[in-house]
Each structure stands twice: as C-alpha cells, then as structure tokens.
Amino acid sequence: MAKKLRYIPLYLWLLFTIVLFGYAILASLSTTKGIFSNTLFANGLNFSNYTKLFTDMNMMRYFGNSIVYTVSACVGIIFVAAPAAYIMGRVRFFGKRLVETMFISAMSIPALLITIPLFTMFIQLKLTGSILTLILVYIFTNIPYTVFLLSGFFASIPQALEESAAIDGCGPIKTFIKIVMPMAQPGLITVTIFNFMAIWNDYLYALIFANNPKTHTIALALQSIIQGFTNAGNYAGIFAASMTVFLPTFILYLFISNKITAGITVGAIKG
To answer: Which top-rank group of organisms is this from (predicted)?
Structure first.
C-alpha cells in the first residue's frame, strides 16, 4: 500500500497534464466567445481557426521550412557525429580523455555565447539569409551532445562482432556501416528524436539566422501569429496555433516512445 501511495503525486500530475492538454484542443476548436462564456461547443465544432492558419497565415510554408531544417540537420548530425562517436567509443588513442573533455565542455557552452561568433563567421562567408545557414548551425551546435550520447552505445557493442567481420574480409568502413550502425540503432533513434524535438522547437537560432521572412521556421511564425491574434482578441486562434506547432512532436513521440526508452536504457546499462 505504501508503494502505491508514492505514485499518487505522479498520477495527479498526469491528470493535470491531460486536463490542460484536452482543454487546449477543445478551445482550439471553439470560438473566443465560447472560451470566455465557458460554452466551448455552443455552436458545434469550429475549424475556422485552423483554416485561417493555413490559408491566411501561410502556416504551410513555415511547416515546410521547419521540416527541411529539422530533417536535413538530423541527417547531417548523424552523418558527422556517428563516425566520431564510434572512434570515441571503440578506439584507444593518445589524447582521448582530452577530446572527451572537450566534447563535454562544448555541451555546457550557452547558446547565447556562441551566437555572435557564428553570425560573424557566416557574414564573412556570405551565407546569411539562406536555408543552408540555419541547417549548418543546427548541425554544429548538436554534434557535441550527439557524440557524447552515441559513444556509449558504440562502446556497448561486442568487440567479437567486428573481429568476425574482419575475418570475413570486411574493412573498417564496411564493418562500421554494415555491422556497427545497425547494432546501434536504438541509440541512433533516441538521439535523432531528441535532436528533432530540440530543432523543431528552437527559437533563438531561428530568430538570428533565419531573418528572411521566407525562411522563417514554425517557431518564429508562432510568435508573430500569437501576437497578431492577441491584438485581434482571437484567443481561440492562439490555442489552434499552439496545437499546430505542438502536435507533430507529440504524435511522433507517441509512436516511438518505446524505442526512446529502450535506447536510453541500453545506454545507461552498457554505456
């Protein structure tokens, strides 16, 4: 009985979260008058808030931009960080401890501290105002965390698998691609999802490096849309805009939450 009582605060917090999330969805399908009069569906479901977002507010363009940024950056991060993490987790070399310390130290650097140097560098390279700029920023800033997390997964893979592959004639690169990468799939999925959510919800880097309205992300669009709806008194539209940004990552998490949990568990036990 005492063990069950320990979970009461967790259950209460879960109930509180479900109620808030449910109310936000219902409010997004209502009207501002219905929200303030506490009669959300007096006139039935109202989809005009979502229709206005995707027709008048160009939400589909911002959605497309965020998808391009997020998918491209996640692929680029794995492409750069996975080989580095493999070396850090599997190979012994002089100065390895120093390199590990540098990666860990890089994770602790505040984003604001590197924003101005990065922006200055991209100005000198004449890369400002393009989609590529923000993709590169996301790749550079997420490599330390990704290398740190993946190195534990690569270290947990039995050495005998690589030795067997070498006997069968596989070179180091082929062994890495054909043997090691599939074995590290839980870790790759886990770190990709974390990177996906961080990039999708990023505001600071998008504000600085995607200053062209045509390259805005959905997070930047949300800020301007909420400001416009607030000035117009359209609070139902604010709920709709918030749900539009939140639901993609929430649905993604529901589908692959078990893989994330499995990946974290493997890294914690064997890493």
So the answer is: Bacteria
Task: Report d(CA 240, CA 252) in Å as an integer.
Answer: 19
Tokens of 48: 């005009």
Angle at 50 between CA 44 and CA 54, to 5 degrees: 150
User: Do the Cβ atoms of 181 and 154 come closer than 8 Å?
Assistant: no
Q: What's the Cα-to-Cα distance from 162 to each of 87, 156, 181, 202, rounded to whole Å?
A: 13, 12, 12, 38
pLDDT of 266 > 70? The answer is no
Predicted local confidence at residue 270, as pLDDT: 46
Decide which of 3.90.105.10, 3.40.630.30, 1.10.287.70, 1.10.3720.10 is the CATH code for 57-270: 1.10.3720.10
Q: What does 97-146 look like in DSSP terms, one character per residue?
A: HHHHHHHHHHHTS-HHHHHHHHHHHHHHTT-TTSHHHHHHHHHHHHHHHH
Predicted local confidence at residue 260, as pLDDT: 61
